Amino acid sequence: MTTDDAALRSALAEQLTAGGHIRTEPWRDAARAVPRHEFLRGGFFEQVRRPGPAAWRPVLADDSEWLASCYRDESLVTQIAGTVVPDDISGEIRREPTSSSTLPGLVLRMLEDLEVADGHRVLEIGTGTGYSAGLLSHRLGDELVTSVEVDPDMSARAAAGLWAAGFEPHLVVGDGLLGYPPDGPYDRLVATCGVVDLPATWLDQVRPRGIILATLGGWLQSSELARLTVGEDGTARGHFLGGHVSFMLARPQLPPPVGVLPDIDGTTERVAKISPDVLDDWDTRFVAQLAAPRAQRLALERDGVTETVLLDAAAGSWAALRQMGRTWTVRQGGPDALWDAVEDSVGRYVSDGAPDLTRFEIAVGPGGLSATWPRAA
């Protein structure tokens, strides 16, 4: 490690402490000690800033800006389209990111929120670059950290970074939604991917009174970081921690292709109680998502009019909303009346004063996610 590396790590630790992301000395020590750049030796992708579709260019370890960029409090894209890494290309690529090194401020905030103590055994879902596993290993010791990654190439790169940084936690290649029973039970589980359904396997592998930290969301693309305490009854209960935290969804829980739209004309039309514009607000969209977690939102141009369509492709349910002057109308089809459910959920939320999501009480168990919020006086 060079003096420049140490200075960059120290400066980052001070920045994250001042910003409130780091709140205790053990994690401050970890931020100072663990070299993030070792986990980015393969480079990262930087977004090209210009109008038009998003494009990405590689920044490699021999580029002059690489080292300093590794210690910015920013997420750095490390994989595109499921397979493409920075040294695969020399120009630009216009595909969707599929993996990244999460901004250090969020990584350290989550590790603080995990409330680990000496001797705790931790399961991490989503190894990614390995930086978070390195921080956990510094805090707890290699033997108490297990990290699962579905992508074997990514896991191999993480292992190289961890070895270079001096850590050897147990890395597992597999489906993180299944956890890893051989090293359990765990005192803590932290997921660095988003989930629509929190797997029962996670609940089974965490000790009663243990903590699960995971980002819960849906296909309307609103999500929240939840801290849940596992109970004896197989249910985990807790609260959202706020901050509009978003991670890429676990690959098995990604939404299916929309495919061919159903016939959205042959049903009765009624006046909608609420406008689909409410879905532009993150918190309100999350509440709508509680009622329709597998609905995707589409904009459909027809006859010179833009319609908002909610579609649950797997169930075959849909709702199509069209603006008529100052009024919105809705048509619905399929086994579930999606917009009826959204109107009911959002209507109750608004009538109760639209409380902050951190005030919700949540429970996750065999029946899925349930959430309640304070009622208006």
Describe the structure.
The chain has 377 residues and is of the alpha+beta class. It is built from nine helices and 18 strands. The N and C termini lie far apart (59 Å). The model has no long low-confidence stretch (mean pLDDT 93).
- Strand fraction equals 25-35%
Mean pLDDT: 93
Whole-Å distance between the termini?
59 Å
Query: How would a crystallographer describe the biggest sheet?
Result: 9 strands, mixed
Tell me the CATH topology of the largest domain: Rossmann fold
Structural class: alpha+beta
| Level-1 CATH class name of the largest domain | Alpha Beta
What's the order of the H and E elements? Answer: HHEEHEEHEHEHEEHEEEEHEEEEHEE
CATH superfamily of the largest domain: Vaccinia Virus protein VP39
Which percent bin holds the helix content? 10-25%
Task: Provide the domain count.
Answer: 2
Q: What radius of gyration results from the CA coordinates?
A: 22 Å
The largest beta-sheet arranges its strands as 7-6-5-8-9-10-11-17-18
Number of helices: 9
Shape call: globular
Spans of at least 5 consecutive residues with low confidence: none
